[in-house]
Amino acid sequence: MESVKRHPRSRRQAVIAALLVALVLMLDAMVASPALHKLVHADADAAQHQCVVTLFAHGQVDVAMVAVDIAIPTPTVTTVPQFLISIFSPAIEHLPAGRAPPVSVASLA
């Protein structure tokens, strides 16, 4: 089997994404556990204390707003005209062998 070679850039992006996820989870754990926050900051209980954990706890996080236009496809209905073609087919083809169509009165004259 051939080994799949990955680009170093995609590997770097995966490492950066994993570190950012770990950072957000760590901040969330510090918000949930004041003792863990106190391990990082000695003055975590102070009223005037502000750090990334307290900002994260109060929802004061800046996010990049991205406006994405949603393109709704317009339904298109196409119709194909039907053509009826009528071809004359004599009845002789549909009769059993040795049989002929009935004789009409007009052909006797």
Put the structure in a nutshell:
The protein is mainly alpha-helical. The protein is built from 4 helices and no strands. α1 crosses α2.
Describe the protein's topology:
Blueprint lengths: L7 H25 L1 H7 L11 H6 L47 H4 L1
Helix pairs in contact: 1-2
Describe this structure in words.
By secondary structure, this protein is mostly helical. It has a domain at 28-62. The chain has helices spanning 8-32, 34-40, 52-57, 105-108. The mean pLDDT is 77.
Morphology call: rod-shaped
- The percent of residues in helical segments reads 25-40%
Count of runs of 4 or more consecutive helical residues: 4
Can you tell me the residue ranges where pLDDT is under 50 for at least 5 consecutive residues?
none
SS-based structural class? mainly alpha
Radius of gyration using CA atoms only: 42 Å
Annotation keywords:
109 residues, mainly alpha
